[in-house]
Amino acid sequence: MGNSNSKHIIFATIGSFGDVHPMIALAIELERRGHRATIVTTEVYRSKIEEIGLGFKPIRPDLSPDDPGLMAKVMEPKKGPEFIIRELFMPRVREMYDDLADAAEDADFIVSGEIVFATKILAEHKNIPWAMAVLQPSSFFSVYDPSVLAPLPFTKYLYDAPTLFHRLLLGLGKRIGRSWGQPVVDLRSELGLPEIRDPLFHDKFSPDLNLAMFSSVLGSPQPDWPVNSKQTGFVYYDKQEHNAEIPAKLADFLDSGEPPIVFTLGSAAVMAAGNFYEESIKAVQNLGKRAVLLVGTNTIEHDLPETFAVFDYIPYSRILPKAACVVHQGGAGTTAQVLRAGVPQLVIPYGFDQPDNAARVERLGVARTIGRNEYTTERAEKMLTELLTNTKYSENAKKVSQIVEAEDGLKDSCDAIEKQLLG
To answer: For residue 3, what pLDDT is reported?
Structure first.
């Protein structure tokens, strides 16, 4: 590609590794294609991004997923969404706008995570084309493919309820969302932009391009998806600083016995782990199995036998395919990696999209689910026994993995972005 076609693309996102990693993957690939990329995210990721060689700009609010107190509030199933939207983001939407405007001063295109509420405002005000990156089906709020709502866990059992029911439930959510999103409405008015009524639901999407960056096995396009939506499949990025290879200690552990059960809570829920690791350790010991615990900054207060290996982090692509089963929180990034690995999974959803992701993999026949507050040694033992002894789970997981592997979310997403850029 010649220099005349080179464009400056901004990737704006706030959140955990599951939010940041797909943006890094897109940025690397589009730079490989001759463009210039800048990641706009919270300060905590600066060194990670600059080490790769990508441009970095900070954006407020300056939140860190390494803050246990913050993560405990964010991951609270019933109040977490209201806390993060009404208390963390909406009071700072003007700061977010100012930071994004500074970063995008010479931008040709913006790719935005859905929680960067300033993107749509800036794109309209400065006439910059943009795409929303949607990482999970629940973000579309489809009444034809309804999602489990974290504050209303009983909706898991209402998937097959009439469309009218889901339309009424969504209508209630929209009415609540109008008050939550008032700062967006106010800033638009200040800048002379057209009024919108639904800042957190239908009106949040891009008129140019909406990338459904998840596999068809989790959800497919629906009649009420926004216009200009393109489903691409998962987009992976799995390197954390210098820790991209399996440590010798882990390689020796994997070679010394049967495939282990891997326990992980991603990069956000791990900061609000509760009793997850304690109950998991007891369940593994009772089952007489081997396990790898990925614990982040948590400390395991046990002298564990040699049937356990404990690490803060291992790139998922290096460890999950070698697992007998994976126990995890159901985040979009983690779920994608487990589906690609082709192994059974036990999901302990904490909040946000995680209960819905859990319900979807359960419907695929590759997983079982235990509620966060119901996770005990006895329940974990029972579910793990079922997942490890009933061959239908591993068979289904391998079939689903083949579908996931056949999709090329990175290529299709970058092709769609370039189509918008270059015509």
So the answer is: 58
Q: For 33-59, give one letter per residue: b (16+ CB within 10 A) or e.
A: eebbbbbbbbeebeebbeebebbbbeb
Q: Which residues contact 377 (CB under 8 A, 6 or more apart)?
A: 279, 282, 283, 286
C-alpha–C-alpha distance, residues 113 and 14, integer Å: 7
Is the backbone of residue 241 left (phi > 0), alpha (psi -120 to 50) or beta? left
Query: Long-range pairs for 92-95 at CB < 8 Å and ≥24 separation?
Result: 92/60, 92/61, 93/117, 93/118, 93/121, 93/183, 93/184, 93/187, 94/183, 94/187, 95/60, 95/61
Query: Which of 43, 197, 53, 40 is closest to 122 using CA atoms?
Result: 40
pTM of full prediction above 0.70: yes
Residue 241 has pLDDT above 50, yes or no: no
Are residues 105 and 299 in contact, defined by beta-carbon separation less than 8 angstroms? no
CB of 59 closer than 8 Å to CB of 9: no
Q: To the nearest whole number, what is the mean pLDDT of the chain?
A: 92
- Looking at the DSSP bridge assignments, the partners of residue 104 are none
Rounded to whole angstroms, the Cα distance separating 199 from 24 reads 27
- Per the structure block, which two tokens stand in for 404? 């996931």
The three-class DSSP label of residue 250 is: helix
SS3 breakdown of the chain: % helix, strand, coil, rounded to 5?
Answer: 50, 15, 40
| Predicted pLDDT at 239 | 56
Q: Is the pLDDT of residue 259 over 80?
A: yes
Tens of pLDDT, residues 34-68: 999 999 999 999 999 999 999 999 999 988 777 77
